[in-house]
Design brief:
By secondary structure, the chain is of the alpha/beta class. The protein contains ten helices and six strands, in the order βαβαβαααβααααβαβ.
């Protein structure tokens, strides 16, 4: 696995190899079953522990921003999350030889709703989004970047406030990027994903005053293997 920490601090957190959070996107062909198995095996053998984050709740914001009606968006999101969950269960079986179970490893809306650190961090993120124009614009810019990568649109129904709707996805993910270690109950952690949005990279470079934990990192990952 090629790993590229987004800052020097992220590199130091990565070197500790204490914990990783694998970010998995529902509508991204990068995450094939074979690649998921490979990623799980890499995380299991490279870190003391790991979790897998599935944005099962936030994904509906992207679908609504793409123009889906709420009922259709919920149905599509549920179907895609079920498909992804089934792939992950097989990947965990293959990647850890059945040692780890899905319920042990996955961070999702259900368990994050009862996670005090996540909820407190989300409250701070939402407040800053309301009060800080630069922060709000950065989040909206990131949401546009996410929407641009979506292949499945229903543009005729796309709402006028699509950017604000889509930004909710990023806002609900941000606590994992900022304080994933505390959320997972470990000393330090790196969030692992194939790419890092420019605005998030900026936050990691400048927000080491408590907004982002000093024990949290972000690492761009690229498999050595091709699937």
């Amino acid at each position: 696995m090629f790993t590229k920490p987004v800052t020097g601090q992220c590199a130091r957190v990565l070197c500790a190899r204490e914990h990783a959070i694998l970010g998995i996107s529902p509508f991204n062909s990068f995450f094939s079953r074979e690649r998921l198995s490979w990623l799980v095996q890499w995380a299991d053998t490279s870190f003391d522990g790991f979790h897998i984050y599935i944005p099962d709740g936030p994904v509906i914001h992207t679908l609504l921003a793409c123009g889906y009606e709420p009922k259709k968006a919920r149905k599509k999101a549920r179907r895609q999350i079920n498909y992804l969950s089934n792939k992950l269960k097989k990947a965990l079986q293959e990647g850890t030889n059945g040692r780890l179970q899905y319920s042990e490893c996955v961070l999702c809306t259900q368990n994050l709703q009862t996670n005090q650190v996540y909820q407190e961090t989300l409250d701070k993120v939402l407040s800053r989004f309301e009060d800080d124009p630069d922060f709000r614009q950065g989040c909206i810019k990131t949401s546009r970047w996410v929407l641009a990568m979506q292949e499945d649109h229903e543009d005729k129904n796309r709402p006028a406030n699509a950017d604000l709707i889509a930004a909710q996805y990023f806002l609900e993910e941000l606590p994992l990027f900022m304080k994933g270690a505390q959320i997972a109950g470990v000393k330090s952690s790196v969030f692992c994903y194939p790419s890092c949005p420019d605005f998030l990279r900026e936050l990691f470079n400048r927000e080491r005053d408590g907004f982002i934990s000093a024990e949290q990192g972000f690492v761009e990952i690229t498999p050595r293997e091709k699937f």
